[in-house]
Amino acid sequence: MERSVTDRGLREIVAAQTRVSDIDGQAGRLWYVGYDIRDLAGKISYEEVVHLLHELRLPNQAELDALHDFMVEEREVSKFLRELMPTLAQQTSPMSMLRTSVSAASAYDPDGWDDSAEADRRKALRLIAKTPTLLAMYHRLRTGQEIVPPNTKLPHAANFLHMLLGLEPSQEDAEVIDTTFVLYADHTMNASTFTARIVASTLADMFSAITAAIAALKGPLHGGANEESMKMLEEVGSPDRAEAYVRDRLERHQKVMGFGHAVYKTMDPRAVVLKRLSKETGERHGDTSWFEISEAIERTVAEQKGLFPNVDFYAASVYHTLGIPTDLMTPIFAVARMAGWTAHVREQYADNRVIRPGSEYIGPRDQSWVPIDER
Ligand SMILES: CC(C)(COP(=O)(O)OP(=O)(O)OC[C@H]1O[C@@H](n2cnc3c(N)ncnc32)[C@H](O)[C@@H]1OP(=O)(O)O)[C@@H](O)C(=O)NCCC(=O)NCCS
Q1: Residue 227 in contact with residue 236, Cβ under 8 Å?
Q2: Which residues line ligand 1 (CB under 6 A)?
Q3: Which of 18, 137, 167, 228 has its CA 20 to 30 A from that of 147?
Q4: Looking at the whole model, is its pTM more than 0.85?
């Protein structure tokens, strides 16, 4: 049967059923298991979101405590990864390090090649627990600083900031990073989640699926946009230069990073929260310049192109103000998205059919083979 591409980029194709999250692109809404992100952000912890996405319901206190204890216990990484890290810190970019070390983490997972649902749940939680440690360790090594061990008293996201910067974050900063993790935790069938589900659909293991997801997130059209947004803020330098910068970019048909979205046709609901956090965090740290430059860019892009900021745009100034280096912004997205990726992989395993779409052949037909010396 002749088949043709009806939808480049598969925008209108529904590729899977999910109970994990949902989006209304026209209304600018996002739900985790039916809970509106606007109600969750700032109210529940990342650990609660992990439970929600994996168990499809919010935890009670005892369940949350048990999850927290398991994840705290799993924060340390294997000797193999600790030995690998100095080379990765010297030779690879942060996303390449994460992709390689998540793949390598499979070597010493206590559940080995057990692919039971229970083993996969533990593997998922271990990945969520360990990836912040990997990223912090990488950064400390590449900057010649002492590695900071996980702090068992701190929650997941605050502990990450502690291991990265070597300082216990203020309560306010701890809450801000936690909220960003909540906002990044899942986002339906984006490119990296779809990638993870495709790999899972072949019944390859959890580590393979997540390694592939990290690879998909690496590209600037998906995860790299928060870093590119920060570079843009630095290049613009002050609010009064925003308009000229944006006009110039658009005239040269270049994209303004952190704007536009494949699904949202209005403001990304996560960007609404992050915009507020960008302002508040800037005020608390005594420097609102990044927020002001961001706002000026947002205004101009809306006027010139009618586009809205996505999650990555205001995340950039929030993370920068928290002291996070620009090139760690995409891997932090990956570290937070670990909750959603692993939940989707488990969902795929639970009701699987190998994902194998068709293609439209557009090359020549009925060619005649000729020997190499006659070509
Ligand atoms: C996210 C993104 C890939 C969505 O792509 P998409 O759904 O394929 O949207 P399109 O690329 O078809 O965009 C439609 C139009 O808006 C323009 N557009 C989209 N995003 C734009 C941006 N960030 N800056 C300038 N123009 C943009 C496109 O050039 C196109 O214009 P045209 O109709 O004149 O050709 C795209 O908006 C983008 O590249 N954004 C910047 C990267 C980014 O922030 N990524 C993070 C996503 S969470």
Answers
A1: no
A2: 9, 221, 225, 255-262, 305, 307, 310-312
A3: 228
A4: yes
